[in-house]
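Rotation project, supervised by the postdoc (A.L.). Task for the rotation student: set up a whole-complex structure prediction and record inputs and outputs verbatim in this book. Inputs entered:
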Amino acid sequence: MRASFVSSEVVNGLRRNVSMTIAMILTTAVSLTLLGGGLIVVRKVDQAQESLRNAADVVVYMNENVSANDPECANDPCAGLRSELEQASGVQSVQYLNRQAIFDRATEEFSNQPQLQELVRPKALPAALWVELGDNVTPQAVKKQFEGRAGIGSINDQSQFVRNMVNKLNDVRDGTFLIAALQAFAALLLISNTIQLSAFNRRTETGIMRLVGASRWYTQLPFLLEAMVSGIIGSVAATGLLMVLKEAFLDGLMKPLTNANLLTAVSYADVAFVAPILVLVASAISGLTGYLTLRLYVRI
Amino acid sequence: MIRLEHVSKTYKTLARPALDDVSVSVDKGEFVFLIGPSGSGKSTFLQLLLREEVPTRGRVIVADWNVAKLPRRRVPKLRQRVGCVFQDFRLLNNKTVFGNVAFALEVIGKPRHTIRKVVPEVLQLVGLDGKADRMPVELSGGEQQRVAIARAFVNRPLVLMCDEPTGNLDPDTSQDIMLLLERINRTGTTLVMATHDHSIVDSMRRRVVELSHGQVIRDDARGVYGVGR
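Outputs recorded:
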């Protein structure tokens, strides 16, 4: 097989169909940008789940009386509750945070939001027992067991919050993937159309190739490569678009979430992580679409 | 070299068969004119030899290959052994004369040094030496047909099939093309030529196979176009 011949055929094919090629590259780029966005969301959700898994599963907020008068959790009802929680089945650890400790923690968490820091006062915050659970017990069971007991103001099921947030992020991911799938479908049709158009434009060449005994593979390869080259250019453009989107929109949009330590910011490492996946997906989809189009619709 | 044994070909869209129980044998190195009115089955005959079509019944043998039974992946090998020339030349207008002829070798993966050696030789054979760098539009009809013949012959096929090769040419140019085809035939290449050109068939006095309504109605060793001429 002559590589120079095949590559010159590919370049000629792309040049002849320049408007269709550009349309194909753009559509592929947009769909791959959405796919890349979805993949980044998945990565962020995984990271968030990992980081939130380390946080308390249940927070038992003490009432005003305990918060104000028992900074060491040395007396009942706080000491009794702590002891009972420590002995409860499935509880891995219990940590008491008094008002000052809670305030310090909040100050650290809101370090990027000075206005919020100014509003928070230690006296406004309740002391709390931070409870980390094992796998064999649900936060709801602990909540049910201790709710309404003396000394407790409220019980916060942290895992519920994590679940809600993960669900929302999963919704964002699903929505992104859905739009990406629709775009990908449009890209597939465009790839198929472009190959058919390209084959039609070069029907004299392919007719001659067939008659002089070129193998089917040799005849089809330039068309396949054209589709794959367009797909790969589209994936590189998608990587560029992701970088631009990160700088122009995502960093700003995600700032509240990253400031609250709920999500880590999208980094160039995240984009670099999805870029090779996009290239692989683009090559595979465009190659496969090209192959099927040539087999089903084009007589070569 | 070529053998058709009780070959019939029916198309779904046609009421009668394009070829109906045709049996013809062509020896190596023979020159055969295939004549008959439009729709008599000449093109189908040629398409069967190239495996562009497969027979509905019967066997088609070309160079010891049973064409209809040939696996799809082997068809290119058959076509490398059977060259073809058409009335409309089918040249690539974006390539030079050299490029057009070289194309036939490039697409079957011949190395560049072979192409550089063989293409000028065949251009000389067809009388186009010195015109290798011309574009097809700069050539006369006769010269364009010479390029097409060079392209069909450059891989030294065993059989050269010509479908109305003089159909677009004036009588003098047609004569030149026929001289060229005769020269190629003298190299041992079997030549099958479908034509409507009375004068050429009559002047060359070669074997004539006449088709009518898909059947062979005449097979003369040294025939003319019309019976009784």
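Student's summary: Chain A has a mean pLDDT of 80.
Supervisor addendum: Chain A has twelve helices and four strands.
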